[in-house]
## 1
Amino acid sequence: MNTQKVDFRSIPDEGVTWTLLGTLYLRAWESRLPAPILGDRYAAEVMERIDYDFDKLGRRLRPSGNQFLVGLRGRQFDDWSAAFLARHPDAVVLHLGCGMDSRMLRLDPEHRLHWFDVDVPQVIELRRQLYQEQGNYRMIGASVTDDGWLDAVPGDRPVLVVAEGLLPYLSEPEVRGLLRRLTEHFRTGELIFDAMAPWIVRMVKVARWGPHDGAEVERWNLRLTCAEEVSFGEHYRRIPVRRYRALYRLMYAIPLMRNMARIFRFTF
Ligand SMILES: C[S@@+](CC[C@H](N)C(=O)[O-])C[C@H]1O[C@@H](n2cnc3c(N)ncnc32)[C@H](O)[C@@H]1O
């Protein structure tokens, strides 16, 4: 990691780009708990390097217990990713909408895998000031909705595609197009993403797409098989603070709440 402070103050206080600062802040906060769920110590290190009013952001985000949701979600993504990579040490990893997440440091600290972090050009420009390309690690500044950027990625190996907190911000045709390009480019692999239920999408200003279930995505793209779909709250027992554990247990018991945000694992 580089060492000088990077100016993020130009990022507006709302909108999709802002959300990457929210998830980074919450992961850093979660990592400081005595018994964290994800425990992403790199998030705290990266945050230290960013010039931004994180206190203001924290006042907006933390009181509702979002740090546990981000911890639970990140844990599920990392666990499924690690299981795939253990079975496919020759895999290519595509981490879409990576923001400032340090997943490659958590899962591939030696940079052995062919790992590509992808986000829009403005975000990758900032990311390059915090992280360095080294070993087989590369960053691609492109919208995942564009054609062309996949040409830089070898298609002849099994692929792990990870999209955490990305697909809700795309439209349905954009998601369909992305999934089609991925399954055309790679012969085999896994795709892990999270999504909100359609009724939540209607309530969240910046959200645009959410599936009813995994079968809906299978119907669009016949190469994809939904292997697992779990609620964000699936592992609520791991929440280390009693009142939030009780709150998430209650939400988990109500199907409408349990299914409002889910994580999907597809194989192809
Ligand atoms: C909620 S943040 C999640 C960031 C990261 N995955 C994390 O968990 O911290 C959403 C990310 O998706 C990125 N994003 C949104 N639309 C995109 C697009 N069309 N192409 C690539 N990245 C996009 C944003 O720039 C942002 O970094």
## 2
Amino acid sequence: MSIAPRRLALLAPLAALPLVLTGCASASGADDGTVDVMASFYPLQFVAEQVGGDRVTVRSLTPPGAEPHDVELSPAQVSRIDGADLVVYLSGFQAAVDDAVAQTSPAHVVDAASDTTLRPADHEDESEEEHAEHEHGDLDPHFWLDPSRMPSVVEDVAATLTEIDPDGAEAFAANAAALSQRFEDLDATYAAGLQQCDVRTFVTSHEAFGYLADRYDLEQVGISGIDPEAEPSPARLAAVETIVRDEDVSTIFFESLVSPKVAETLADDLGITTAVLDPVEGLADPDADYFSIATANLEALRMALSCS
Ligand SMILES: [Zn+2]
């Protein structure tokens, strides 16, 4: 308690700074001459950083290690959105960000939802009441877990950065080409790694892997539905238990940013194991990145599904 007031006193001038800077947000709004980018959560932050390189300053609206679905924004963050040269977000995923973008006028906006065709969310395991609590509508937001869908976002970010900073055109194009190639290579690695598997059904606590399952011909069974904080009903747990027995499922996956309690209890009851499948919504480990997490996910899936 004794430290808090002093820290607040130190932080206050910093928090006020972006408000001052928004007054001169022209071609390059960041104070060091780079393009000032606000990304709404990690995978989009990663794309903006990789494409923009040292010509951009990228900040994320979701703190590192935080769960992005129900992020709340401070007034300072909202004013940073307003003053940003570029906002990169995914409409329909984070209600607070949707509201902030609608209420402000950032110079440029990339909405990743316009770069890919989002699939409908699977709602068959939810009651009407659970469904009504959703904040992200009827579309499944988790497209970034299918790497083949990422290059179109990369291209959109590169094209928009080029509008903002034409001198960076060559750098953005080269960075975008290299990044898109990495996503395409990862897609090929996934396809090969998940081709020959004894089991094609996997159980996850948070139903974030529908795009991945679609792409590589797997079946996702979610315990808690598409919202990671939702509590599964007893009926849902019983249905999952039946699937686990019928499909010879060996592993129940949980994720790093949400409590594994439900997954662990269920796995204990069934005498099977748990493992981490990371939805790449935020970085729990600051040394990780999109590709290292995706590679670890592939290894975990290959192990659980007995792939050769
Ligand atoms: Zn999610």
